[in-house]
Amino acid sequence: MTVLVQPQLHDQYRRLITSAQALPRLKVAVAHPCDAASLGAALEALELGLVEPILVGPQARIAATAAELQVDISSLRIVDSAHSHDSAAQAVALVKAGDAEALMKGSLHTDELMGAVVSREGGLRTERRVSHCFIMDVPGHATPLIVTDAAVNILPTLEQKKHIIQNAIDLAHALHFPEVLVAVLSAMETVNPDVPSTLEAAALAKMADRGQITGGIVDGPLALDNAIDLGSAKIKHIHSPVAGRANILVVPDLEAGNMLAKSLTFLAHADAAGIVLGARVPIILTSRADSEMTRLASCAVASLVAEARRKAIAVAG
To answer: Which 3 state secondary structure label does DSSP give 80?
Structure first.
């Protein structure tokens, strides 16, 4: 008889949520919360004191979803919209007006929301490339792992990877990582002209050495095993402050990142909270397949990012 061993209950996300609960509620524009999963996620975060949601969508559909969940939303602000594209546009407008400090994806396609975010007219662009980070809580691994980019940039250029790394480093500081160690991943840990990702990884590491990427130690190329396992790094005789200890994993492209994140989720029973960075505000991307803990952790991450930005603005001026 096969005995299934349940993965150890991990507490990385609980620590994030506890930290966020000590902050003011994050004002979040929830774009098109017209199904039970998306509306429920916003209400769960409200109940825990993480967010103050503004519901943006067709009012009748939101009301019907609330009735399905048997919840009272009469105390919440609702902004009526005509359809999902309009929901995205109006949610972005709330941010631009200063009524919201973050966006949260509801029951619309990610492309619809991100299209409104990156619109040259009325969007939330900054000088940074927009990118996605998974904050992964992996049973048996002592620290959270940030995996980037597995959801937005399909085949990023070297310049775009510089922005992707900087976004992830800033996130790690917002989450109070004691040190920020970035591994730029490839299939091997040596530079090989036949493997372009190794060339880009080496260039990015040198860019960090020269101050073009700041706030963390960047090394690459590194293979996944010797990025996160000290034993593997020692066997390969890799002498690096990052090897075996990385807490940010930068993947070559979206396909590699997606497969890595899903492998950790479905084979290692990891949770994967998600956040989009590089816009004027953090963007919470949740999925219908996410657990309640993952959805709450995503909200907590957004709250901590918003708090870090408040502090940076206060210092700057």
So the answer is: strand
